[in-house]
Design brief:
single chain, 114 residues, alpha/beta, Purple Acid Phosphatase, chain A, domain 2, elongated
Length: 114
């Protein structure tokens, strides 16, 4: 008997945690504890919940594989002081989080490709 592990490909969440949570709560996905998730960059910015989005993805542990997108690099550049935030950036909540160092470390250690 061959079993398969479903892989859900998700791109450009851009801080939209509600949409991610709806996907994760879908009965077909929620019932399968073996399901894996590949996130194709742009996890943060633009949407209202970048911090929650990162926390949700981080909580998936080994079930989540992420690569970084330009918005994720932009967050790291702002956090490191290389760039200033733009008017439409939504990083304030991440940068003010009590565990910002751990969050940024997690983001920093995501690969560019998989």
């Amino acid at each position: 008997m061959t079993t398969h592990t479903p892989i859900w490909m998700i791109g450009d969440l851009q801080g939209c945690n509600d949409a991610l949570q709806r996907l994760l709560d879908h009965p077909e996905i929620a019932a399968d504890r073996n399901a894996r998730f590949w996130f194709a960059g742009d996890l943060v910015n633009r949407g209202p919940d970048s911090l929650k989005t990162l926390r949700t993805i981080m909580s998936l542990g080994d079930r989540a594989t992420c690569v970084l997108g330009n918005h994720d690099f932009h967050l790291l550049a702002i956090a490191a002081g290389f760039k200033k935030p733009g008017r439409s950036d939504t990083f304030d909540e991440i940068l003010a989080a009590p565990d910002v160092d751990g969050i940024l470390d997690w983001v920093r250690h995501r690969p560019l490709l998989h």
